[in-house]
Amino acid sequence: MSFRLPAAPHPVILDDVLGAQKMLSGVARTTAMEGSRHLSQLVGAPVHLKCENLQRTGSFKLRGAYVRIAGLRPEERAAGVVAASAGNHAQGVALASSLLGVRSTVFMPEGAPLPKVAATREYGAEVRLAGQVIEETLEAAQEYAHATGAVFIHPFDHPDVIAGQGTVGLEILEQCPEVRTIVVGVGGGGLVAGIAAAVKAVRPDVRVVGVQAEGAAAYPPSLAAGHPVSVRAPATMADGIRVGRPGDLPFALVDDLVDEIRTVTEDELSSALLLCLERAKLVVEPAGAAPVAALLSDPRGFPGPVVAVLSGGNVDPLLMQRLLRHGMAAAGRYLSLRLRLTDRPGALAAMLGSLTVLDANVLDVSHVRTDPRLGLAEAEVELQLETKGPDHCAELAAALRTAGYTVTVMG
Question: Where is the ACT domain (predicted)?
Fold first, then answer.
C-alpha cells in the first residue's frame, strides 16, 4: 500500500487569477468562443474554439506579461524589463511594457522570423538578436539582466504570469458554463497550469487535457519521474510549445490538477492548422492548433462539450505556405507520381488529358527523356497533383495503371 504526501500549497490559487482578471480589464480582450460544426460532428458533442489567436499581439501571452510587469515595484519598473523569446512572449512583453510605461528590451534568436521581429519593435521594445537557438538567446537576456539590473520576465515560470494566463479559464467558464473538457497546448506549462488553477477551483469535474508536440514532449517523462526533466533537442514545427523542460511552478500545478497530457505528431499538427483555416476561417499557428490536432487524432476521447484553446495565430507567411502544403499532403490532398510513357508526340498531352477527365489539378510536371534507366522509346514523367483526398488518390493511380502506364506513387 502506498501513501501520498499532502500536496504543497499551490503557487497560484483562484484568488490570484481573479485579481489578474481585474488587472487585465480594459487591457486584454475577452476573446471570442466559436463553435465548430465539423469538429462537433467528429467528436459527437459540441466543440467550441477559444480564439486567443485573436487576442492583442496575436496570442494569450499578453495576459501573463501584463500582470507580471504591473506587479513590479516602482524601483523595478525604473530599471526596465528584459525577456527572451522567438515571438509570442516577445510581443506580449513589448506591448505590456508600453502600456505600463516601462522600458523593455527583448532578445530574439538571430533567425527569428522578420514579421515577429518587426511587430515586437512596433510594440515598443528594443530588440536585440542573439544566439542561433532559444537557449543561447535566453542566456544573453539573463546576462543583460545581471549587468543592467533589468527585471527578467520569464515566459511561464512565475506566479503572476500563470495567474494572468489563468484568466483564459475564467472566460471559458463564463462563455461555456456547460463545458466538460478543456484542451490546451502545452510548452513550459504556464497556460494549462493557470487554466487548471482557475477552472478546477470552480468546477473540479471539468477535465483539463494538455497537448504537447511529440518531438518536444517534456511533460510525460517529467510526470513519470515526479519532477521536471529535460528533453534533449526538442524538435517540432510548433515553436510556441517547443520547450525542453517544464517550468517548476507550472509543473506543480499540472501534476496535481491536469487530468491528462497527450502528444500529437507533426502531420496531425499540420492537418489541424489546415482545418482551422479551411473550416473555421481562422489563422492559427502550429502551437495554437495542437488542441485541434488532439481532437482529430482521437475524436471520441474527449467528453463534451469540449473547448479547444487556440493559443496563438502568429505564423510567418513563408512557414504558413510550407505548413499548408504539409497539411494538404498529410490529408491526402497532394499526390506525387512517377510514371513511364512512350516517347512520341502527343503522349504527354494524352496522359495529362486523362487526368483532367479524372478531375485532378496538375501542379507541376517534370519530363525526363535521357535517363539511362529508360528504354529508347520511353520517357519518364514526375507529377505533382492536387486531389480531393485519399480515395481520389487511389482512384487516380488505379486509372493510370489501367490505361497502361507504369506508375510509382512517391512518398
Answer: 336-411
**Catalytic (active site) residue 61:** yes
Give the burial string for 339-358 (b: 16+ CB within 10 Å, else e): bbbebeeeebeebeeebeee
List 50, 61, 116, 200, catalytic entry = 61
pTM reported for the whole predicted model: 0.83
- Assigned domain for 381 exists: yes
165 and 78 within one domain: no
Q: H helices then E strands: how many in the chain?
A: 16, 14
What's the CA gap between 374 and 148, in Å, rounded?
Answer: 68
Residue 2 lies in a domain: no
Please indicate, yes or no, if residue 5 is contained in any of the structural domains.
no
- Chain centroid to CA 115: 17
pLDDT in tens, 230-255: 998 888 888 888 888 999 999 999 99
The predicted-structure confidence for 189-223, as pLDDT tens digits, reads as follows: 999 999 999 999 999 999 999 999 999 999 999 99
